[in-house]
Protein backbone atom coordinates (compact mmCIF):
# COMPACT_ATOMS: atom_id res chain seq x y z
CA UNK A 1 0.00 0.00 0.00
CA UNK A 2 1.10 3.55 -0.71
CA UNK A 3 1.87 5.58 2.42
CA UNK A 4 2.52 9.30 2.80
CA UNK A 5 6.16 8.44 3.51
CA UNK A 6 6.67 6.52 0.26
CA UNK A 7 4.31 8.50 -2.01
CA UNK A 8 7.09 10.57 -3.59
CA UNK A 9 9.27 7.57 -4.49
CA UNK A 10 6.20 5.65 -5.69
CA UNK A 11 5.21 8.46 -8.07
CA UNK A 12 8.79 8.99 -9.28
CA UNK A 13 9.03 5.28 -10.10
CA UNK A 14 5.72 5.45 -12.03
CA UNK A 15 6.86 8.49 -14.02
CA UNK A 16 10.36 7.09 -14.56
CA UNK A 17 12.35 8.99 -17.19
CA UNK A 18 9.39 10.76 -18.83
CA UNK A 19 9.62 13.92 -16.71
CA UNK A 20 10.04 16.18 -19.74
CA UNK A 21 6.74 15.13 -21.26
CA UNK A 22 4.10 17.10 -19.37
CA UNK A 23 1.19 15.16 -20.92
CA UNK A 24 2.69 11.82 -19.81
CA UNK A 25 3.37 13.13 -16.30
CA UNK A 26 -0.21 14.43 -16.11
CA UNK A 27 -1.66 11.06 -17.15
CA UNK A 28 0.51 9.25 -14.61
CA UNK A 29 -0.35 11.81 -11.92
CA UNK A 30 -4.09 11.39 -12.60
CA UNK A 31 -3.82 7.60 -12.23
CA UNK A 32 -1.78 8.05 -9.04
CA UNK A 33 -4.44 10.38 -7.60
CA UNK A 34 -7.02 7.61 -7.89
CA UNK A 35 -4.90 5.16 -5.90
CA UNK A 36 -5.55 4.94 -2.15
CA UNK A 37 -2.94 6.20 0.30
CA UNK A 38 -2.89 4.77 3.79
CA UNK A 39 -4.72 7.02 6.25
CA UNK A 40 -6.10 9.33 3.56
CA UNK A 41 -9.68 10.38 4.31
CA UNK A 42 -10.30 12.67 1.34
CA UNK A 43 -8.50 13.17 -1.93
CA UNK A 44 -7.10 16.69 -2.03
CA UNK A 45 -5.72 17.49 -5.48
CA UNK A 46 -4.61 20.95 -6.61
CA UNK A 47 -3.77 22.37 -10.01
CA UNK A 48 -2.01 25.71 -9.82
CA UNK A 49 0.07 27.93 -12.01
CA UNK A 50 1.45 31.44 -12.21
CA UNK A 51 4.64 33.49 -12.38
CA UNK A 52 6.50 33.51 -9.06
CA UNK A 53 10.04 34.17 -7.86
CA UNK A 54 10.26 31.30 -5.33
CA UNK A 55 13.75 30.49 -6.64
CA UNK A 56 14.97 34.08 -6.72
CA UNK A 57 14.19 34.23 -10.44
CA UNK A 58 10.77 34.91 -11.91
CA UNK A 59 9.55 31.72 -13.56
CA UNK A 60 6.21 30.37 -14.66
CA UNK A 61 5.31 27.46 -12.35
CA UNK A 62 2.76 24.86 -13.42
CA UNK A 63 2.11 22.48 -10.54
CA UNK A 64 0.08 19.30 -10.03
CA UNK A 65 -0.24 18.69 -6.28
CA UNK A 66 -1.61 15.89 -4.12
CA UNK A 67 -2.05 16.99 -0.53
CA UNK A 68 -2.07 14.63 2.45
CA UNK A 69 -3.37 15.31 5.94
CA UNK A 70 -1.30 13.32 8.42
CA UNK A 71 -2.69 12.08 11.72
CA UNK A 72 -0.79 10.50 14.58
CA UNK A 73 -2.89 8.43 16.98
CA UNK A 74 -6.09 9.98 15.55
CA UNK A 75 -4.78 13.51 16.21
CA UNK A 76 -3.98 15.98 13.43
CA UNK A 77 -0.21 16.22 12.99
CA UNK A 78 0.55 18.11 9.76
CA UNK A 79 0.00 18.30 6.01
CA UNK A 80 2.31 17.30 3.19
CA UNK A 81 2.15 18.13 -0.49
CA UNK A 82 3.55 16.04 -3.32
CA UNK A 83 4.36 18.26 -6.31
CA UNK A 84 4.87 17.59 -10.01
CA UNK A 85 6.09 21.02 -10.99
CA UNK A 86 7.08 22.32 -14.41
CA UNK A 87 9.11 25.53 -14.71
CA UNK A 88 9.06 27.76 -17.79
CA UNK A 89 10.63 31.06 -18.80
CA UNK A 90 7.81 33.60 -18.33
CA UNK A 91 6.60 34.78 -21.74
CA UNK A 92 3.97 37.50 -22.14
CA UNK A 93 1.38 34.79 -22.73
CA UNK A 94 2.36 32.76 -19.65
CA UNK A 95 2.54 35.87 -17.49
CA UNK A 96 -1.20 36.34 -17.97
CA UNK A 97 -2.00 32.84 -16.67
CA UNK A 98 -2.66 32.24 -12.98
CA UNK A 99 -5.05 29.81 -11.31
CA UNK A 100 -5.52 27.53 -8.33
CA UNK A 101 -8.20 24.80 -8.61
CA UNK A 102 -8.95 22.22 -5.89
CA UNK A 103 -10.58 18.85 -6.55
CA UNK A 104 -12.78 19.27 -3.46
CA UNK A 105 -14.74 21.93 -5.37
CA UNK A 106 -15.99 19.27 -7.82
CA UNK A 107 -18.46 16.40 -7.45
CA UNK A 108 -15.85 13.81 -8.30
CA UNK A 109 -12.22 13.57 -9.27
CA UNK A 110 -12.91 12.82 -12.95
CA UNK A 111 -14.99 16.02 -13.22
CA UNK A 112 -12.03 17.89 -11.74
CA UNK A 113 -9.54 16.34 -14.18
CA UNK A 114 -11.83 17.00 -17.16
CA UNK A 115 -12.23 20.66 -16.20
CA UNK A 116 -8.49 21.14 -15.70
CA UNK A 117 -7.82 19.78 -19.19
CA UNK A 118 -10.18 22.42 -20.67
CA UNK A 119 -8.36 25.35 -19.03
CA UNK A 120 -6.10 27.59 -21.10
CA UNK A 121 -3.78 27.54 -18.06
CA UNK A 122 -3.32 23.81 -18.73
CA UNK A 123 -3.43 23.76 -22.55
CA UNK A 124 -1.06 26.63 -23.38
CA UNK A 125 1.99 25.29 -21.46
CA UNK A 126 1.50 21.82 -23.03
CA UNK A 127 2.89 23.13 -26.32
CA UNK A 128 5.89 24.85 -24.72
CA UNK A 129 9.25 23.51 -23.63
CA UNK A 130 9.84 23.65 -19.91
CA UNK A 131 13.26 24.49 -18.49
CA UNK A 132 12.95 22.15 -15.53
CA UNK A 133 10.68 19.51 -14.01
CA UNK A 134 10.68 18.78 -10.29
CA UNK A 135 8.91 16.06 -8.35
CA UNK A 136 9.17 16.60 -4.61
CA UNK A 137 7.24 16.27 -1.37
CA UNK A 138 7.21 18.79 1.44
CA UNK A 139 5.60 19.35 4.80
CA UNK A 140 3.49 22.49 4.87
Give the topology, please.
Layout (H helix, E strand, L loop, with lengths): L6 H9 L6 H13 L9 E9 L6 E14 L2 E14 L3 H4 L3 E4 L6 H10 L1 H7 L5 E8 L1
Antiparallel strand pairs: 1-2, 1-4, 2-3, 3-5
A few lines on this structure:
The chain contains 5 helices and 5 strands. With about 140 residues, the chain is of the alpha+beta class. A hairpin with a 2-residue loop joins strand 2 and strand 3.
Number of strands: 5
Structure classification: alpha+beta
Span between termini: 23 Å
Average pLDDT works out at: 91
Adjacency order of strands in the biggest sheet:
4-1-2-3-5
Q: Oligomeric form of this entry?
A: single chain
What's the shape?
globular
Secondary-structure element series: HHEEEHEHHE
Query: Beta-strand level of the residues, as a percent range?
Result: 35-45%
Number of helices: 5
Helix percentage: 25-40%
Uncertain residue ranges: none
Task: List the main descriptive attributes of the protein structure presented here.
five-stranded antiparallel beta sheet; 5 strands; alpha+beta
Explain what you see.
The chain is of the alpha+beta class. It is 31% helix and 35% strand. The chain contains five helices and five strands, in the order H-H-E-E-E-H-E-H-H-E. It has a five-stranded antiparallel sheet with strand order 4-1-2-3-5.
